[in-house]
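ESCALATION

Customer reports they have been waiting on this structure for their group meeting. Please prioritize. Original submission:
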Amino acid sequence: MTTVAEAVDLPYDLFRRYAAVRETGHALTALATGQAWVIECALEKGVTPDGTPYDAFTKVRWETQLAYAALLQAGAMAQDRWLREQGLWTVRRELATQVAARHSMAAVQTAGVGAADVERAAAWAEELLQRHWRLLLDCAELLDRRGYVYGSHLSGLLRDSGETGASAADDKAQAPGT
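Update from on-call: job pushed to the front of the queue and completed.
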């Protein structure tokens, strides 16, 4: 069986950044919704049971299913954009990214989020990623360098970023279809 790391086929330092982009995509989108809180993001050294040379996670609490669906979808969206911007995108890497996101999509289905809300959440995630992309890249670099970032630190960075005149509460009011 091929691991995600093998399928993505990037040198370890780029693969680690690829993982950091996914986790900060989840985290910043969660925070930007104004409907979720991040406890921490981490990249731990080691090998997962399937052979992937990292164990990345983001601990999040959410208030609404729409925010949950948005933050779950944002990780793969962020990775796809990052691969494209870095000139690293290939069909194989796109497929590996989507396969790696299967646990996120399974979580969306388990939560009972309907198809229309999944689409709304995807649009919302895309909008928030676009708005906070520069900050996401900076936070991914920080996560990659330190190996962990606490949600309170990410919240402060988002609040102080100046990337938008809207607060997280304003973002909450701007959720698609609300």
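Sent to customer with the following note: The two ends are 43 Å apart (CA to CA).
Escalation resolved.
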